[in-house]
Design a protein that fits this description.
By secondary structure, the protein is α/β, with parallel strands linked by helices. Helices cover 36% and strands 22% of the residues. It is built from seven helices and twelve strands. It has a seven-stranded mixed sheet with strand order 1-2-3-4-5-6-7. A five-stranded mixed sheet has the order 8-9-10-11-12, with no helix packed on it. Helix 5 links the parallel strand 11 and strand 12. Helix 5 packs antiparallel against helix 6. The radius of gyration is 18 Å and the shape is globular.
């Protein structure tokens, strides 16, 4: 599962959906991001963290509340959790729905976990754009990132310089819009300003390969905006839109997400379009 290690940053990638988990080390802290998916994969990350932790303080960051991103929470019960305010504001019903997705996934594949499935309790809340949290030598700056879900969080790690993007700016997925297409556009619009303030050389999305240059980050941002705007125009005109995902990877699965995007935008436009 270990994809690469570059200095203080270690990237793990699941066999499922090319989902990324990160471990970032500093002198006094170890930060784990979205540990996932399968029980053995979560255990591999857990073993790695146990091997490098020593006497350092353990932090756990969640980029958003999709069930595949919080599924490993229980394996890191001693960690202090960082997430967005919207993540913490989920209602009891919303939390239970997310946990039920985990239970259904595990039941479907006869998976047994060595830890309890619970919704994360958050110790450190990123509540404002540009909010900074300092943990010794580790400095994190957060930015609300709604659109995919309503509780997304961009996080910039100042040293090492790293942009943790959650389910945005992927090279393998077009925008998956579960919250709002206009919010998704606004979130992509933030990326330029964030990069101007934090000129990071490395961006890691929730799924797929890292972006290792600012031109590549900008290319992905532009592609996401283009997809949303062209899809909205096609829906408004009642035109077919399958050409927008021509050549995408894993087309049999991704068509479902594309259709879901079409239906969401149709509702946003008041039911217009085909």
């Amino acid at each position: 599962m270990l994809k690469w290690k570059r200095g203080e940053i270690t990237l793990f990638r699941s066999e499922l959906y090319e989902t990324n988990s990160l471990v970032v080390e500093s002198a006094g802290h170890v930060l784990v991001v979205d540990p996932c998916w399968l029980p053995g994969e979560v255990e591999e990350i857990r073993r790695y963290v146990s091997g490098v932790l020593g006497g350092r303080r353990l932090l756990l960051l969640f980029t958003h509340s999709d069930f595949d991103h919080i599924i490993g929470y229980g394996a890191f019960a001693e960690a202090e959790v960082i997430a967005s305010k919207a993540f913490t504001d989920k209602s009891r019903e919303e939390r239970e729905s997310i946990l039920e997705e985990i239970r259904a996934f595990d039941d479907n594949y006869y998976l047994r976990r060595s830890y309890e499935i619970t919704y994360p309790d958050v110790d450190h809340i990123m509540g404002q754009d540009g909010q900074t949290m300092v943990f010794g030598e580790l400095q994190l700056t957060g930015y609300a990132a709604p659109g995919h879900t309503n509780d997304g969080l961009f996080t910039v790690v100042d040293s090492p310089r790293l942009f943790i993007a959650g389910d945005y700016l992927s090279d393998v997925e077009f925008p998956y819009i579960y919250d709002s297409s206009t919010a998704y556009e606004a979130t992509l619009g933030k990326v330029e300003r964030i990069i101007a303030r934090h000129p990071v050389p490395l961006l890691v999305p929730g799924h797929g390969e890292a972006a290792e240059s600012q031109p590549e980050i900008e290319r992905r941002r532009g592609a996401g905006l283009d997809y949303i705007r062209r899809l909205r125009a096609a829906v408004a005109a009642g035109e077919a839109a399958d050409h927008l995902i021509a050549g995408c990877a894993f087309p049999r699965n991704m068509r479902k997400f594309h259709r879901s995007n079409q239906e969401r935008i149709k509702r946003e436009l008041g039911g217009t379009g085909g």
